[in-house]
## 1
Amino acid sequence: LTGQLRIDLQNARGMQVDPNGITLHGFLARDSGSRNLSLRAGRVRYALRKVNNKRMLARTSDGGTWEPLWINFGAISIDPLSFREADDEDLPMAETGGLPEIPESFRITVRSDDGAIIWREVIQHHEN
């Protein structure tokens, strides 16, 4: 879970968080045969899904099949630790997929359905 999510966050250019999950856009596409990262533009969604009355974190890429990742999932939160100032270096909308540009650094926290922290890490996305 953490390895896949970390790779997606590091390769994303746009990110939008909502109460049920997170949508990422950037260099996230996978080769359909090998499932290896192809670094082509793509969109990934991590979201809460309910299956047999269980809360589950699932992942879908470019609107494809949902892959179950974590049973008894509670929530994902993103806390920006730096903010971008509007300038001439903003990424083009095509690169971010129309989503807000990902912060330079942020803390991600993934919690189980009982509130326990499963994973917390600071991601330095665009290192200077």
## 2
Amino acid sequence: VMDEIGKLVSSRQAQTGIVYCFSKRDTEKVCEELKRAVPALKNKITFYHADVPPQEKERRQHLWSQG
């Protein structure tokens, strides 16, 4: 599945997107695997869940909305 997601992300590098996961742990794992699958975008791939501090959530959301 990660290979397919990686191909999709690679084919749409100029767009933003969200990958939904079932748990916080899965969210972080998928983030790390995507960074390995699409190294050109590793600085733009991040995770967002309930344990991210509020200021960091705001920063990540702002960056995501800006592309």
## 3
Amino acid sequence: MLLQKICKDEGIEFVTQKTIKLQHYDWHKTRRHQVDLFIDSTEPKICILADGDYWHANPNPYRVSS
């Protein structure tokens, strides 16, 4: 969400949770992968993956701060 805010504040257009096709899927054991942010308005195109605690199975308990 922080990356989305930064992109919005800078006027960068992006798509969230875009599934992309991997060229060398034999390396990754999968043909497709979902990225957190995809920026299509640049060349080359940019894929951003963010390692968040909750979604990437941090062994520490996840707590939402209030």
